[in-house]
Amino acid sequence: MSVSSGLSGRYAKAIYELAEEKKILSKIVDDFVSLKELLEESDYLSNLIKSPAVSKSDKQNSILKFLNKAKAQKLTIKFFGTLANNGRLILINEVIDDFLSEVSRINGEIKAEVTSSFKLDQDQQKKVVAAISEATGIKKIILSASVDESLIGGLIVKIGSKMIDNSLKTKLNRLEIAMRGTN
User: Fold this and answer.
1) Sheet holding 109-116: strands in order across?
2) Over 70: is that where the pLDDT of 28 sits?
3) Range with the lowest mean pLDDT among 48-62, 71-85, 116-130, 165-179?
4) CATH: 1.10.10.10, 3.40.718.10, 1.10.520.20, 1.10.1520.10. Which one for 7-104?
5) What phi, psi does 86 have (nearest 5°)?
6) pLDDT tens digits, residue range 145-183?
């Protein structure tokens, strides 16, 4: 297991090993994905977790209420209850990301983040996945697409710590810098 060596990585490793041992890894992955989506959508829950004004027990009660309502696995509920009880709920996003990254790595998947100037349709996404797969030699690509209209055209592809910026905006910026240097 090669998750992040920090505190969030240790928590992610612990839940991974417990889920694997109990043979419910896929169910825990589902819980983590759902919780990640909930945290992204709910400003209330995110602010509650981050707020130093909210007590540890109130944070714990709130996260447990959300997880019970979502019908999460008992292991997931107990894990995040422990995280809250230890005052580490502030690490929730990092723990979720470390856990999901490790599951993907073990499954031979890589996550690619693609930013374009317009929303890519299914066919375009398939072509991007095929190009990334050909370039990396990895067959399982999880594509996360976003839109940044300021790019004008082209794509920015980020895989792990590597980024390929082939956007028109960046090309124009480079051209402007080069032209300034010729005076």
Assistant:
1) 140-147, 109-116, 155-159, 162-165
2) yes
3) 165-179
4) 1.10.520.20
5) -85, 5
6) 899 988 888 889 988 778 888 888 888 888 888 888 765
